[in-house]
Amino acid sequence: MNAGAVARSIATLPARPRRVATIVSLTAMWCVLWGNVSVANVLSGLAVATTSVALGIGTPAEGGVRLWPLLQLLWLVAVDMVRSTVDVAIEILTKTDRTDESIVAAQLPMRSRDHFLLLIVAITLTPGTAVVDGDLDTGTLYLHILHDRQRAETIQHVERLADLASRALPVPATPVPEAT
């Protein structure tokens, strides 16, 4: 995409509520990642988010926004952040090391692959879990977790996040090209 196309894309950003919601969400996540809401963080977050959306990175510009599933998704991420912060704090403060770290692969359903970046950010925001790799072609996220005994629970939780993201930000079905 050349500079003129990016400029035209940025100029049409406010025309779509989904793009505005994406920019606001990405800016908020930017501030959370920096751990501070300041003028500099908001402005730099807006710049990164606007550029990302203009370049087509992240969730598609087409589609709707469903408020109730979006609120459920945001609530789930907020609860995850609190729970995992407490879990990590307990792990740090106890003398016994109970960690059994591992890498797990979570397979995303096809309909949630349009929200790959959103899911990576939502998962990585929670302390104690990090996305270490992702394969968009197969829809696989590779996660580092602190407790291998929570492997099945973690994969199930990622599937719940993916489902909520797909319901909150539905994308029109892409027509499958016919074979010739």
Helix/strand layout:
Elements: H1 3-11, H2 17-34, H3 39-54, H4 67-93, E1 102-107, H5 116-125, E2 129-135, E3 140-145, H6 151-168
Antiparallel strand pairs: 1-3, 2-3
Helix pairs in contact: 1-3, 2-3, 4-6, 5-6
Describe the structure.
- With 180 residues, this protein is mainly α.
- The chain is built from 6 helices and 3 strands; from the N terminus they run ααααβαββα.
- It has 2 domains: 63 residues, no CATH class; 106 residues, no CATH class.
- The chain has a 3-stranded antiparallel beta sheet with strand order 1-3-2, covered by helices on one side.
- A hairpin with a 4-residue loop joins β2 and β3.
- The two termini are 29 Å apart.
Put the structure in a nutshell:
The chain has 180 residues and is mainly alpha-helical. It is 54% helix and 11% strand.
How many domains? The number is 2
Order of helices and strands: HHHHEHEEH
Radius of gyration, CA atoms, in whole angstroms: 18 Å
Strand content: 5-15%
Percent helix, as a range, is: 40-55%
Strand order of the largest sheet: 1-3-2
Distance between the termini: 29 Å
Give descriptors for this structure.
three-stranded antiparallel sheet, 3 strands, 180 residues, mainly alpha
